[in-house]
Specification:
The protein is 57% helix and 8% strand. The chain is built from 10 helices and 4 strands, in the order αααααααβαβαβαβ. A 4-stranded mixed β-sheet has the order 1-4-2-3.
């Protein structure tokens, strides 16, 4: 008899759970319908109802992701027509941390030529897109191409900004453009914004800060380092070739002074290999800043 009561109670619990799940599904469907019909205020209201009645449910998590993706797409359309403030207002409503939201924020910052913000947002988008705990990568077509594209955008913006503020998280993990060097996504070289005094191989203040951030990253790595130096096309070819190698050597010397003991090689490339950029409407000075760089290659 006691066992029968247990099974009856269990059956009642299962019935109630199924009914609750069905109600949550209906609420999520109503939310999605409002969003698809571009009724954002109504969608917000229905989302609040869903979260109140079904806290922690799979329907809430699904709705959060869907809401974020839709807002990112709508904000992207606004950003493409230079309606930047409206795009940001939509992104502020996003419910989850998303690579797509960070990408559009990077686009908005790039259009405003806020290169520090653009570098941070593109770098964050790349990190999220390569972190399986944040992204269901199986649902993204051409994933590898998208990862490389975001890394390129982050690198472009970082070089124009001119500094590498930080290279690792508080938890000691690589971040931003350097995250690719340790995650094995087919990106062999990372261009670094290590700046020098004009016409010299002496690190300027921003260059020292970038080199220090690079040293923090390398301390957690193993293998061999190759540093490639580049110069912009001003000046003659011979002098630029010499200068580019001297600049790569200056970075190597700085790293050694920071007690970096990995094997290092320096290579001067002069003004060869002009940069390819995914950014649009760059000024001549911004293109020159993109040209000047030291590239890091980290081999096992």
């Amino acid at each position: 008899m006691y066992s029968k009561k247990i099974w009856l109670a269990l059956g009642l619990w299962v019935s109630l759970a199924c009914a609750a799940s069905e109600e949550c599904g209906v609420l999520e469907g109503a939310f999605r319908t409002a969003l698809e019909q571009d009724q954002l205020e109504q969608a917000q209201t229905r989302f609040q109802t869903l979260t109140a009645k079904c806290p922690g449910s799979t329907q809430v998590k699904s709705a959060e992701r869907y809401f974020t993706d839709v807002l990112a797409r709508k904000a992207n359309d606004l950003a493409n027509t230079n309606r930047l403030t409206e795009a940001e207002a939509l992104l502020d409503q996003a419910k989850t941390l998303s690579w797509s939201v960070s990408t559009v924020r990077g686009d908005v910052a790039a259009k405003r030529k806020d290169w520090k913000e653009a570098a941070q947002q593109y770098g964050r988008a790349f990190e999220l897109l390569t972190d399986p705990t944040h992204t269901n990568t199986l649902e993204i077509p051409n994933l590898a191409e998208l990862q490389k594209h975001l890394h390129q955008l982050a690198t472009d913006a970082q070089l124009i900004y001119g500094k590498l503020d930080t290279s690792i998280t508080r938890g000691g993990k690589p971040q931003g453009i350097l995250a690719a060097s340790s995650r094995g996504f087919g990106i062999q070289k990372t261009a670094l914004p290590v700046h020098f005094e004009t016409g010299k191989a002496t690190l300027d203040q921003d260059g020292q800060q970038s080199a220090e951030a690079l040293a923090s990253f390398i301390r957690g790595q193993n293998g061999k380092i190759t540093l490639f130096g580049f110069a912009d096309p001003r000046g003659n070819d011979k002098d630029n070739l010499i200068l580019s190698r001297q600049r790569a050597q200056a970075v190597a010397d700085y790293l050694k002074n920071q007690d970096i003991r990995l094997s290092m090689e320096v290579v001067g490339k002069g003004e060869t290999a002009p940069p390819q950029t995914s950014l649009e409407n760059l000024t001549e000075e911004e293109m020159l800043a993109r040209w000047r760089r030291v590239e890091l290659q980290l081999d096992p």
